[in-house]
Write a structure and sequence with these properties.
- This is HKD family nuclease.
- The protein is α+β, with helices and mostly antiparallel strands.
- The chain folds into five domains: about 190 residues, Endonuclease Chain A (Endonuclease, Chain A, 2-Layer Sandwich); about 70 residues, no CATH class; about 55 residues, no CATH class; about 55 residues, no CATH class; about 60 residues, no CATH class.
- An eight-stranded mixed sheet has the order 1-7-6-5-2-3-4-8.
- Helix 3 links the parallel strand 3 and strand 4.
- The longest helix is centred in the middle third of the chain and has 22 residues.
- The radius of gyration is 29 Å and the shape is flat.
Length: about 525
Amino acid sequence: MRVEFLGHGLHTDHTNTVGHYMIDSLKNEDYYSFVGFSAFTKMSGINRIKKELLQASKKFKSLKFYLGIVPKGTSREALQFLIDNNIDTWIFCTKDQIMFHPKIYFFQGKHNYRFITGSSNLTSFGLFDNIEASTLFEFSKNNQQGKKLVRQFEEYFEPILNGEDKNVQKLTTEVLVDLEQSGFIWPESKTNAEYEFVKSNKKAFAKRKKLKFDKNSLGKIESKPASYNNDSDYIPAITQEYLNSWPDFFELFKEFKKENLDKGEKYSVTVPSDYKNPSLYNWYLKQKIYYKNKILPEDHEEQLKREHFYFGDAHKLWQEWKDDTKLKLLQEAVDEGENIGLSQRYEYKGVRLGTWIQGVKKANKSGKKLDVMEKINEILDLSSKSRTPLDTATRFINDLLERENPNKANFQNRFNSALRDRIDELPDEIQQDIVDVWFLVFEEERPLGRIRTRQKDRTDEWKAFRYNKSLNPEEIWFSTYSIMGDLYSWVRQKREVKSRMDLVKKNFNEKEKSELRREGFPI
């Protein structure tokens, strides 16, 4: 079982919000069922997850909300939206001196369950902006602790979930009209509990005395020793519950193997730590621990070996697979007549082979991946002593990037003697790399010889696109060429090449940087 603390609102740069996990879960192809509980619900919150919610309402087998109703709490617009889009919604409205106050978002899937509970209401403030705290539980459908959590949730809320509680009612247009006429439901502009609270809070705070306090008097949380579960010598017990569930996990393992056959037999039997079913990864680790300690049940070992289960070091194996894959691509690129050189920006079929080659070279300095570099050299027939303009320029660029404190005068002399008179023999992209890397390292606008000037900074145009709601209603930083026009290629470079993003990242505030990171820009 995976357990995560979700806190947001306390720091300016946050992506660990319940809202972000809601969006991710609604988009996740594994999930097919959702139940949401919220004490207060507003269109401000629904609008932040609207696109994904509507998509999920069409593809999910079941999607239901159970919402609390108190005067001026939940807005008319939010309820009307749920009715208009045929989203199954139930309300809890009572005359008693209690209120429906849980905040629970529960997703069920083919492999995984995800359960989020805490303080976040279905409002913009609750999902993204307030200082909130929640807990995420993620587990496979076979996880016993997870099963217990779901069972307790369903048993406790059974009268509400099945609509038998006297205070629960299915939301319809007639029910909404009745709630509005009786004074429970108001337009969103008049359900400003959060905004009014902030307003009154500011007034009250202004009247307080500005007393100093001793930070050292604040309570301290003492750290506890690491759990023995993190001990490399720890051996989990072989319980009856584990033995009972083993056949189910073995079938899931075989299913995983089929999904990954394209990686080759050896690599298709290695479950990664970020696999969509975390319980399968835990089961996979146990097989290796039990095998290493010679306590793996004999029948289990036989079945695993028939499926060619890999008992060795998976990290090393995965790295081998990645290198082998890139070596094959590199050979294919050479066979296709690609002009590769050693450009860090070189990409083939969407894979950054240039960055990978530079990473292998760096590892070589520590005595690592020597065999991989040997294979690269065999494919490319590279020589560190090559005096061709391309190899000379490539070494110049790499040295400039890798040197901790490069001497500008030395590199200027090196350029003048080795490259200036041969600049026309270099590909355009290599010329551009020299100019841009020079600026990145020395922060100096300085055309070298007959090389072009540095690329125009189009950050202002990029920001104008991001905040143009008519052209870019999704408020994203990267879209298609048909929408972005000739700005597309300039922005795409920033997403694919870290050094190009480094040139402009100082132009963005922390919120914008956080958005860019979520969209895959290397900041």
